[in-house]
Amino acid sequence: xxxxxxxxxxxxxxxxxxxxxxxxxxxxxxxxxxxxxxxxxxxxxxxxxxxxxxxxxxxxxxxxxxxxxxxxxxxxxxxxxx
Length: 82
Description:
Layout: E1 6-11, E2 16-22, E3 29-34, E4 40-44, E5 50-55, E6 60-66
Antiparallel strand pairs: 1-2, 3-4, 4-5, 5-6
């Protein structure tokens, strides 16, 4: 992940990056977690954080929306999955 929440895959054999997509329009990635099924969960966005789901097996990158749209600023630096 880099500025503007762009997600890249690094191909170490060729030493090159492949752009997968953009997690959210507002950038600022704070968390990345991989669950037991290999799904990548991303917390990104500012001032309201979004939860983003990335499935490496299909390449699907889905913005699941804001965590809390009732607060003017919801920004976190930790994550948890079950």
